[in-house]
Amino acid sequence: MRALTEKVSALKKEKNALILAHYYQPAEIQELADFTGDSYYLSKTAKEARESLIVFCGVRFMAESAKALAPQKMILLPVAGASCPMADMAVLEEIETLKRLHPAAALVCYINSPARVKALCQVCVTSANAEKIIPALPEREIIFLPDKNLGAFLAGKFPDKKFINYPGYCPVHQDVKTEEILRLKNAHPGAPVAAHPECTQETLALADFVGGTEAILRFAKAAPEKEMIIVTEEGLRYALEKQNPRKNFHFPQPPMLCQDMKKTGSQDVLLALERESGQIALEEGMRLGALRCLEEMLRLSV
Ligand code: 13P
Ligand code: SF4
Questions:
Q1: How far is CA 185 from CA 28, 129, 181, 206, 218, in A?
Q2: What whole-number distance in Å separates Cα of residue 32 and Cα of residue 153?
Q3: Given a cut of 90, is residue 100 above it in pLDDT?
Q4: For 281-297, what is each residue's pLDDT tens digit?
Q5: Is the Cβ atom of 88 under 6 angstroms away from ligand 1?
Q6: What average pLDDT is seen over the chain?
Q7: Is the pTM of this model over 0.70?
Q8: C-alpha of residue 115 to centroid of ligand 2, in Å
Q9: Beta-carbon-side half-sphere exposure of residue 126 (alpha carbons within 13 Å)
């Protein structure tokens, strides 16, 4: 591993490269990365970075967002098949039908969408900024895609808005069983439950705190309790334990694992850097559409 890290460092210097990783990436990748973060932080960092090459350790929609925001940079996705199953659920024809059925509605997508879907939408949101962006939209009706769970969560927060939710979902967060959360609560009485809004309403009803990955990290740091129950992908354990060495984090069983996030290994990062393989390319018209959607998100997030 040390030899690999040294090779990666040398290549980074030679090629003026930066490595970004999402919190759900394997621990070895989070260790190798220059910055780890949630979807919102990573897209901002990709845009603002001074480096000309970015190795994006995450899934395809994240690397596409980086390319849309920073077209002059070379963006590499180390494993071509690393894609978000939920992002891939959004079907263009179905979105067009929803638009026709609800012409007065704002078309809003979760950042977990391919660039071609973002190009159709007026703004995207992440779990970190959705609660700021939704109330800022003048439209009362909102077509929200593709995550029906995040859509339902936001609909509960903003009862003055009418949500038309696309039926997509994250299989990792959707499949958590409420019996498992109850078992954890019984096993660790008094431990607060923090859950990601990609979980179902039934799961979220058992949570003391609901937020995206960065918000869960902030909650865990601030909470006085030593034991906590965390309902999101297992990869977040790495940052939680690093930031809170004296606290214990209990995750559901079976482990919530995003197979696509776990496809990237250190060797893939090295190969991508060596060969400049996995380059993201977006057709210019589509890129400009996705850029408009992402820039509107950044504008409404401040
Ligand atoms: P956040 O890191 O933005 O909370 O997103 C979670 C996720 O599922 C990314 O794919
Ligand atoms: Fe997509 Fe869910 Fe994996 Fe995130 S955890 S990349 S939403 S499948």
A1: 30, 29, 6, 9, 21
A2: 34
A3: yes
A4: 999 999 999 999 999 99
A5: no
A6: 97
A7: yes
A8: 16
A9: 24
Question: Is 258's C-beta closer than 6 angstroms to any atom of ligand 2?
Answer: yes
Q: Which ligand is nearest to the CA of 256?
A: 2
Residue 1 confidence (pLDDT) above 90? no
Kindly state if the Cβ of 63 falls inside 6 Å of ligand 1: no
Radius of gyration in angstroms for the set of CA atoms belonging to the chain, rounded to a whole number: 19
Q: Distance, CA 188 to ligand 1 centroid (Å)?
A: 26
Cα 109 to the center of its chain, rounded Å: 13
CA distances in angstroms from 231 to 18, 128, 185, 262, listed in the order given: 30, 16, 12, 18
What pLDDT, in 10s, does the model give residues 245-266? 999 999 999 999 999 999 999 9
Burial of residue 131, with CB atoms counted within 10 A of its CB: 0-12 exposed, 13-18 middle, 19 or more buried: middle
Handedness of CA 239, 243, 246, 247 (dihedral sign): negative
Helix axes 39-48, 60-69, angle to 10 degrees: 30
